[in-house]
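Q: Hi! First time asking for a complex rather than a single chain. Here are the components, and I think there are two in total. Is that enough to go on?
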Amino acid sequence: MERMKQMSTLEQQINFLKEIDRLKSVVRQSPLLDQSRKENSAEHSWHLAMYALILNDYASGTVNTNRVIQMLLLHDIVEIDVGDFPIHGGSSHEVQAEQEASAARRIFGLLPAEQGNNLLDLWQEFELAETEDAQFAKAIDRFQPLLINIFTGGGTWTESGVSLDQVFSRYGPVIKRGAPLLWTVCEKWVSQHFSGQAPRASDSA
Amino acid sequence: MERMKQMSTLEQQINFLKEIDRLKSVVRQSPLLDQSRKENSAEHSWHLAMYALILNDYASGTVNTNRVIQMLLLHDIVEIDVGDFPIHGGSSHEVQAEQEASAARRIFGLLPAEQGNNLLDLWQEFELAETEDAQFAKAIDRFQPLLINIFTGGGTWTESGVSLDQVFSRYGPVIKRGAPLLWTVCEKWVSQHFSGQAPRASDSA
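A: Yes, that's all I need. Here is the structure of the assembled complex.
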């Protein structure tokens, strides 16, 4: 009987793991650094988890890196249902939030109840951005695409005609709140970019 | 001075994070579940981390799920230099191990020394597969591609003319050692597959 129950639990878990395979087909606005194609949300999530692992010393508060990694691994799973809302797309924040919450309930709802609720809680914590873990995770989620734009000579900023002021207002507060030192570096790179100089990693020194 | 040092550290970390972007261009043998294209090693690593998060109850020993997740996030980074060695490719294990160790030293060596050494240790622990964490991580790394083959009607087994016995010997010991209950399910699915029945997730119940 115990084994029967465990098997039914496994069935739900495997259905969830199969479903999230679809995140590999959600294409983002940002390119790979070699500009061979656009990045997808699954590999983006992997890269963010590595960013959090490597850069946890720059968090403004005391963070639990492993919780931050878990948040970043699952933060975009809702895009399976609703797609990626680009930061420069001008979509309604309220509509987006409602659609994503509904997607989170459906997708995490595929799991056994307790496990699904735990992950839903973690996803909601990320969205609310009130804890230090979530604020650092949010900062990383803004920092990585900014870096891509810097190192590909403009990326989505050039495509969408984004100005220096818009970069500062759309990325600044979130990165500064969760990882202030990273933002001081970004400010320098962004200013250099918009003044026509090509920033390099060594400019952080 | 302290700040200068911190900035130089950040420069090394960003160079590492830029370098590993290339893992998104390493193409594996396995397809996505919708068979639209082959999987790459970055999104594969993301998926394995999610497998470990969801399936940690099936580990044979007492594992630290967060360490397992970290291992799986970085276990394939060496493929940036040496590519993916397919399980059914018949390549020399010794040559592969040497090339991968050299790649690990180069890539983790981009990081500040202490951080790079810690990640190199974690990568070596995975490779050696002596700890319970590493054995569970290895089991997950075999289980996910097996599942892809099952749910795409054969996948790399069909392409490479792999037999039932070969599947049992190439996947069985590793999955059984790290996650015995998952292997009992695999045995059933694999047997069904090779007898011409199409396994479904509900067959785990």
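A: The first strand of chain A starts at residue 27 and ends at 31. Let me know if you'd like any chain examined more closely.
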